[in-house]
Amino acid sequence: MTSGGDPGFGPEWSASFLRGSSDEVRGWMETALTWCDATDRIALEHYRRDLQLEQKPDTTFVTVADRSIETLIRERIAAQFPGHGVVGEEYGTDAGDASVRWYVDPIDGTHNFIRGIPIFGTLLAAERDGELQASVISAPAVGQRWYGWRGGGAWTTSALDGGAARRISVSRIASIADAQVLFASAGEVERSGLVPGFPALLEKVWRERAFGDFWGYTLVADGAAELMVEPDLWPWDAAAPMLLVEEAGGRATDFEGVRSVLNRTFLATNGILHDTIRSILIGRGEGDR
To answer: Is the separation of the CB atoms in 2 and 272 below 8 Å?
Structure first.
């Protein structure tokens, strides 16, 4: 129960999922930030240069930068946390039964990266016994990072702020008519067939924009939007955003309302509007819980 009386979201509720000490999980986050100093350099060395592309069996693309970054992260984890496991986009799972596992997305927004669009980033999240504990999102081309840990809040640092840390929180907007909705691709959402109420939702909200990949989730966490929705993503895509949104006071679930990063569908909200938005998306109508 949050201080505002709403079950299922809010900073106090998020802190209840802490497993271990706050100092320990904050230490994981701070260590991950130092890793991103190196991964940022790798990404920017390749950005807007001739790229060596390879198409994976699932038809998505991978670059030298993707593989170099994930290799570096795996090496750092093995050196600094030898008992921890890894679940990564490019090289799969190592020590999958470890109590602590890291989710690694070396470059989220690879298509943006390939086309010279600066909205891409490295996503890292640490999980203990099935509960996310800390996360970092680093977007070097825009000079901004977002990070958080259980009970410690969600934060951002930006070149625009001179690198000073700023605590972020979701919006308090409680009306669908005032909400801003984000998605990676309207076509993908509609073609998925999983949220038949998506067109109806767009008719009800104040504004809708396609700000995809990690970017949409950071905007929800920072109070700039009320919903980010995606019908097809992997655990390494969702893990870091989920921790960030929850620590910012919001809520993140799959389309069935299950709090998980494993089920390939994902929506993150300011919490207040979560049930109403989900009901509209799955076709039950506004106000049905």
So the answer is: no
Q: Whole-model pTM?
A: 0.93
pLDDT number for residue 286: 54
Q: Is the alpha carbon torsion for 252, 256, 259, 263 positive or negative? A: negative
End-to-end CA distance of the chain: 18
Q: Is the pLDDT of residue 60 over 80?
A: no
Which one-letter amino acid corresponds to residue 136? Answer: V
* Alpha-carbon separation of residue 88 from 98, 124, 152, 164, 227 (angstroms): 14, 9, 25, 30, 26
Report the CATH fold assignment for 18-168. Fructose-1,6-Bisphosphatase; Chain A, domain 1 (3.30.540)
Distance, in Å, from the CA atom of 140 to the CA atom of 42, rounded to the nearest integer, reads 10
Q: Per-residue pLDDT tens for 10-55? A: 999 999 999 999 999 999 999 999 999 999 999 999 998 866 656 5
Q: Which residues pair with 101 in a beta bridge?
A: 85, 127
In words, the CATH class of domain 170-281 is: alpha beta
